[in-house]
Design a protein that fits this description.
306 residues; 12 helices; mainly alpha; single chain; 2 domains
């Protein structure tokens, strides 16, 4: 039997259907509730005017027709585009994990001895610590932060200050790794083939960084968001007129049930646009990913010293 830990990819998601359906933390409901309650006052006004003032125009729209519109919105609009950005970002960070491990494994296992064992150990520790630092520098760069508390056991104060003051922190670290690879090649610690392999893995790290920055700095087209919201607004404005003839004040409840998923989908599209921002729901667990890289790379270093 497979461990349920591996079957359940989202640790915050409940395995039980009912509990998961009623979860408040991580849901977009708290973020759309004020707008949802406010817009639900609109059908109340329409029904009250129709019942107590004078009949309003009634639109002949069957339940199946407006349900089809809702389903169309689910399939077509913003969530698909937002999820695509989120998933691409996750794949890029998977690449950062893989390339970091590849650099460390190659550096620790395919290098020949330097003139002294002390010099060799220093080089190995240096390339491991800067490879680990690359993921943390990338995380902080994408989140516009400079919190490197998790690197205080690897980098000294001067190195941390140089990293924080760098114009582009990930490229600063990449430069350190490149210099170490060049140093090993000049000292003949690694041959030309391993040099090319390490350089190729470093290039892939930088490529993944650039792709993450592309996602971060290229928001969803504004015209797309405007059209989606305009369509939702028009639909919600006309919906009460198609319901008041047969439902009366029940329109309010039906309207709430239709508006809830529409506003939720609109909000989900916004939340998924930037998968790196911690204030967004379901942001990528970059802190956990970086800690994993650090743990595994240091374990490889320790293993090589045995």
């Amino acid at each position: 039997m497979k461990d349920s830990t591996y079957l359940h990819s989202n640790k915050d998601e409940s395995l039980g259907f009912l509990r998961g359906a009623l979860m408040w933390r991580g849901s977009v409901t708290p973020r759309i509730l004020p707008s949802l309650l406010l817009i639900t006052c609109y059908p109340l006004l329409i029904v009250a005017l129709d019942q107590y003032w004078r009949p309003l125009p009634h639109l002949a729209v069957t339940p199946f027709e407006y349900t089809g519109v809702v389903l169309g919105l689910v399939l077509v609009f913003r969530t698909n585009a937002g999820h695509e950005r989120w998933w691409e970002a996750r794949k890029l960070w998977g690449g950062i994990v893989n390339q970091s491990r590849n650099i460390v494994i190659a550096a620790l296992n395919y290098s020949e001895a330097l003139d002294s064992s002390t010099q060799a150990n220093v080089w190995r520790k240096e390339i491991v610590k800067w490879t680990v630092a690359f993921s943390f520098a990338t995380k902080e760069s994408l989140r516009n932060g400079k919190n490197f508390d998790n690197l205080t056991d690897l980098l000294n104060e001067q190195e941390l200050e140089s990293l924080k003051s760098a114009t582009h922190m990930p490229l600063f670290v990449a430069g350190k790794i490149a210099a170490l690879i060049q140093q090993a090649r000049l000292s003949q610690q690694i041959d030309g083939f391993i040099f090319s392999e390490l350089e190729g893995q470093l290039i892939l790290l930088i490529d993944h960084l650039g792709a993450c920055e592309r996602i971060l700095k290229t928001p969803m087209p504004l015209v797309y968001a405007i059209k989606a919201r305009r369509f939702i607004l028009i639909f919600l404005l006309l919906l009460p007129f198609s319901l008041i003839e047969n439902l009366g004040f029940s329109v309010i409840f039906i309207y709430f049930l239709v508006a809830y998923p529409l506003l939720s989908l609109d909000r989900i599209g916004i939340e998924l646009q930037n998968p790196f921002a911690t204030q967004n729901l379901s942001h990528l667990p970059l802190h956990t990913i970086c800690d994993t890289i650090k743990l595994q790379c240091l374990a490889l270093l320790k293993q090589s010293q045995c």
